[in-house]
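Archive transcription. Copying these from loose printouts into the bound notebook so they stop getting lost. Printout 1 of 2:
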Amino acid sequence: MSDNNKDKRLHICETFDYLQSEIHLLEPKSKKQEDIVKREFHRDDDNQVDSYYIAPQFYTRNKYDRFWDYPVLFEEDGVSIWVDGTLYLRHLITSAGVGPFDVNALLSKASRLLEYKKFVESHKADYKDFSQRRPQARITYRYYVHLFDLGISAGVLNQKTGVVYDFYKWLSELKHSKIDLSRVDQVQNVWISYKKNNSRASVDSGSKGKYVQKRSQTLRTPAPSDPKRGYIREQGEDLRPLDKKELKLLIQSLESDLFNTQERLVCSVALNTGARKQSVFTLRRSSFDNCNEDTLESDGTFKISIGGTNLVSSKRNKVSYLYFPKDTVDAIVSYIESDEYKERLIKYQAKFPDLQKGDEYVFLSSQGTPRYMAHTDPYFRQYGHKIKGKLAKDIVAKLKNDESISKFPHDFTFHWLRATYAKSYYDHLLPQVNDGSILLTDVIHRIARRLGHEEISTTQLYINIFKHFDYLLDAQNRYEEEVYRGIYNYED
């Protein structure tokens, strides 16, 4: 019976072993013998026992390679495996190497490739047949028109046809393939010019830019609108600092019974260090081992390294530093010594036994699961795509649903805490600019260093926004002192 249910035709294998291994009929002598896996099987015709050998290509902590949540695509009958589609997905995995792999992106491509396969089947076509003289008669062009008629956004349409084109590109490069990629879609090289910190791009002869391939089966995506007045756009998200009244509402809500100790501590770290979500949630117990009077900076903070070979994640794994107020560190140390944390730690160690002592995450769920998993974590390939810091969204949802702070910004996101930290640090440094102790350029560089910005121009966008925040002068000094010192010391 034909089965057109997408879920039943996209099966997820929880584990797939020896994904990047070579298969040999004779025992290979060039490999390390202890790594060779011998498998025996019985022939159906004469019941003779035969054997073959598996030679792994690279190794994870499991000695042989393993992939979790491997997608397998099925044919229309729901029983036979669609070999080309499934092997293409394997190619995407094996060509990615041993680093972090985005399993969610792979599953999305698998779903979109299956969507195309079902379209081909519904038109009784052969997905390998491009013999039609007119391009409009070929199946990929017909699929493009179908997507266009659905009225989906240009970005989604381009992604869907892109998955199809990449599949055919791989298929055309296989030995003995008869796929002529030029008949699948027409591609031309175009020059895209751009400016830094400006997402608007144009096709012209500008001096800064790059050549990209433009397929005919795409639509022009509209240029993104400018961020709202008073907002900064970072990583595609519009954010701004909380003003003094909004900050008081935030603290009021956090101190209510709506939030638990861990949630308050998460917000405290973000608000008092400017850390991104992935850095907050990948803090480890060992991150604070060296926090003592001897390592305390002159401004009353502890300098903690993140990114690179450190266990704590950073954007693009760039080495940078977070500066923790002493009060915030004291609160974290107190938390990891609490009975609640110790109970969660026992569950965590049972689930993830391979981590060294001290490498355990500070923020764990009641089930002992990390709130976020670092790319360097040995369990990342197995669990990383499932653990993405959902607690941050839960915190935001609680704030928006708190009726006692109805005037709190409805468009608030967790990332706003980072901008709020930057603003408080700016205000903390501003008196030194006014008395001539430091220059405004020094302020910009210090904020850039604290936020881990690669481009000073990004920090300048923050500064331009900060200049237009009109706090009452008589409340300014109190706000700066209280926010910079930490929300645990906040007093009305």
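Printout 2 of 2:
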Amino acid sequence: MSLPLSAGLVADAGLPVTPVLSPDGRRIGYGRQPGGTLHVVTVGGPTRTVGEGRTPRWSADSRHLFFLAGGELWRERADGGDRTSWPVAARDFVPLADLATVVVLSPDPGEPDPWVWSEAAGHDRLRLLGVFEAAHGGSIGWEGAGPHPHDERSPISYAARITTPVLIVHGAEDANVPLGQAVFLHRALRRFGVEHEFVVYPREGHTIAERAHRLDLLRRTREWFRRLNPGRS
């Protein structure tokens, strides 16, 4: 069966596991239940069953699908060949350009800091301090008194100019973007009298995963835009 990739496909499937679109837009990896069977849908091609797994992630070149299963990290070609696995326990992960290196979030919520796992490093856990901040902001906050490049890029630095109402939602255990950044923006918006709403979801990381929280986020977002754009309800 050949299926196009579309919002309708994702919506009609009723999937509790968030579908993940490949960077080239040609494939979607998804599962019908957490920890169940993963599938890959290809534009103009068949729907392929990958096997049991969770947390599907695509490589940057869209040629490989990564996922977690049985306490291991798996990697296989997008077309179904060349499958490899490593004994890496993780709550979540991000593949890097090197197909044998990933950024890992520990399965233990008590260890929120990510670390790098590399096949070449012999499974050594190399702590990843500030890599996300440096990658997105150009610098990290403990590199001296500054000025820092990340200050020039941060919306917090320009809070006095913000006039558009802002909805801030954040996971309490987000290890990619610390909750403190959202708190700081909230305080800045309150200081300058900017209309905003600040919501923190307990137990959530960088992705809102619990069903009740997802429903709340959808309803809250819908009501937010309905109130601000009453003519488009």
